[in-house]
Amino acid sequence: MLSRRSDTPSSDFVGAAVTAIAQLIREQDLRPGDRLPAEAVLSKDLQVSRTVIREALRSLAALRLVELGAGRRPTVAELNDDAFGLMIEHGVVIDQIDIQQIYDARRTIEARTSALAALRRTEAEAKAIIAHAEAMAADFHLPEKVIEHDIAFHLSIARASRNPVFALILGAFQNVTRQTWPIGWRSRANDGDRQAMNALHHEIGQAILAGDPGAATAAMNQHFDVSLKALVTAGLI
Amino acid sequence: MLSRRSDTPSSDFVGAAVTAIAQLIREQDLRPGDRLPAEAVLSKDLQVSRTVIREALRSLAALRLVELGAGRRPTVAELNDDAFGLMIEHGVVIDQIDIQQIYDARRTIEARTSALAALRRTEAEAKAIIAHAEAMAADFHLPEKVIEHDIAFHLSIARASRNPVFALILGAFQNVTRQTWPIGWRSRANDGDRQAMNALHHEIGQAILAGDPGAATAAMNQHFDVSLKALVTAGLI
DNA sequence: CCCCTAAACCTGTAATATAGGTTTTGGGAA
DNA sequence: TTCCCAAAACCTATATTACAGGTTTAGGGG
After folding, report:
1. What is the mean pLDDT of residues B160-174?
2. Of A209, A234, A9, A26, nearest to A117 (Cα)?
3. Minimal Cα distance from B61: which residue of A?
4. A17 CA → D14 C1’, Å
5. What residue spans in chain B does CATH classification 1.10.10.10 cover?
6. What is the SS3 assignment for A34?
7. What residue spans in chain B does CATH classification 1.20.120.530 cover?
8. Contact criterion met (CB < 8 Å) for B63 and A63
9. Integer Cα distance of A206 and B17 in angstroms
10. Beta pairing, strands A72-76 & A66-69
């Protein structure tokens, strides 16, 4: 978990190319969408075969530093949560991370995103957040719809927090959340429990609309208390 | 930030191979260190050229789902923070993330890791954490030593929290922290300010040793208040 | 049963070829 | 002049072959 990456591994052509290309982006101050030199050019400049360049570009594309496409030069890309999501999923698959730990991370971060959202959300964002909460209540007998609104609800808050780091991290948890969500849902045996959860979503949304960070965080924490209890009941944690 | 990855992109051979290999790891329940099929075998199984398989493996290696080495079959790898660190660094380079946002994420998470560390640390971990705080005080006229102890101090706490998600995220911030750290250091004009920071580190360490999560979090928050102020003074935020 | 070595296996890099996708260029029409 | 279009130039995705090393395995000798 703690190893520093070895810059410019001398005998690793691909690693060296990755470093060189990342450096190129930094030093030339390239922006998302800007084009990198063609593979053939990089190959000549860095004195390695196109094979090496391609593998280096694929590495960078996997991390979403660059974007590749047939016929077009490699372009600088914007971060998104896919890559980090894959990593988290892998951590769960190999039991390096468990569900409880992800939940604790979510709780920690979402306590903050809800407060920031209350402070920073636009009117439109507040409306969208509340709309998801209401849609959840309206469709509460259709789990396949509820889950989508639930996830969208939390992610809207993350975005409204105006901190892309939070949005990135919480977005990466999405896939794992999606897999455990039905378990929590089923463990809420009766509609009363489910409606209680809707009430909490409503409360969070209202606090964000009202611009009350303390209330938003409090409601969010309460929400996680209840959700966590559901997962414990289900024996998942 | 929100796009879901499209599973099995039909016309993207490499993407399909990545998905297939990741699925292989999951379905065969492979553990870190376990070997994947040789490239030639994957090539035959998935009906694509070795070129495609290699690029797929490089993608997975970039995310640290697998590890590659000359002469040896690809092996399943453990997560580490290098890959995520590269992503974060890129986010900063392209101005998708700013330093203040990383600091807010750190503060949010470290408030929690310090509390968890107080609850879960072993005796040895508590000693190591305190040792870093003391080394910082002892070497406080040697910035190049102080920074290393500072970073190690925070990371030890993250590890002692027993949540690898936190350790992963905070580890990924390391490189960025390392780049901004000297700025904060210089803005602490006199030794008094610097010693004050040492006192806070000491306080955090003692709270963790004492097993007092509330005090640990409080001291950590105070620490971030001061650090943030230093960065503001320096005009970085 | 253990150790060592040769063979078998396997990856890293390079070079070449080609199908198709994208961008640029330059000319002709409006 | 400006706009549009088609041809040309450019470029990537994939496949194939080759070979230099590095690693693992199998088998024989002690």
Report:
1. 98
2. A209
3. A59
4. 21
5. 13-76
6. coil
7. 82-233
8. yes
9. 45
10. antiparallel
- Please tell me the distance in Å from A190's CA to the nearest CA on chain B: 31
Using CB atoms within 10 Å of the CB of residue A187, give its burial: 0 to 12 exposed, 13 to 18 middle, 19+ buried.
Answer: middle
Cβ-defined contact of B102 to A165 (cutoff 8 Å): yes
Q: Do the chains contact at B163 and A61, CB–CB below 8 Å?
A: no
B14 touches strand D (CB under 7 A): yes
Question: Which alpha helices (DSSP H) does chain B contain, by range?
Answer: 13-27, 39-46, 50-62, 81-93, 99-120, 123-138, 143-160, 164-187, 191-210, 213-233
Residue-wise pLDDT for A96-155, tens only, equals: 999 999 999 999 999 999 999 999 999 999 999 999 999 999 998 899 999 999 999 999
ipTM: 0.94
> What is the CA B27 to C1' D26 distance in angstroms?
31
Options 1.20.120.530, 1.10.530.10, 3.40.50.2000, 3.40.50.300; CATH for B82-233 is 1.20.120.530
Backbone φ, ψ for residue A170 (5° rounding): -65, -35
Delimit the CATH 1.20.120.530 region(s) of chain A. Answer: 85-233
Identity (one letter) of the amino acid at A226?
Answer: V
CATH topology of domain A85-233: Four Helix Bundle (Hemerythrin (Met), subunit A) (1.20.120)
| CA–C1' B228–D7 (A) | 59
Angle, helices B99-120 vs B191-210, to 10°: value is 40
- Two structure tokens written together for A12: 């690793």
Q: What kind of architecture, by CATH, is found in domain B13-76?
A: Orthogonal Bundle (1.10)
Nearest residue on chain B to A50, alpha-carbon basis: B51
How is residue B15 written in tokens?
């993407």
Can you tell me which residue has its alpha carbon closest to the C1' of nucleotide D24? B72
> Cα separation of B177 and B175, whole Å?
5
pLDDT tens-digit profile, chain A (237 residues): 334 444 445 689 999 999 999 999 999 999 999 999 999 999 999 999 999 999 999 999 999 999 999 999 999 999 999 999 999 999 999 999 999 999 999 999 999 999 999 999 999 999 999 999 999 999 988 999 999 999 999 999 999 999 999 999 999 999 999 999 999 888 876 777 788 889 999 999 999 999 999 999 999 999 999 999 888 888 887
Distance from CA of A185 to the nearest CA of B (A): 22
Structure tokens at B69: 């080495």
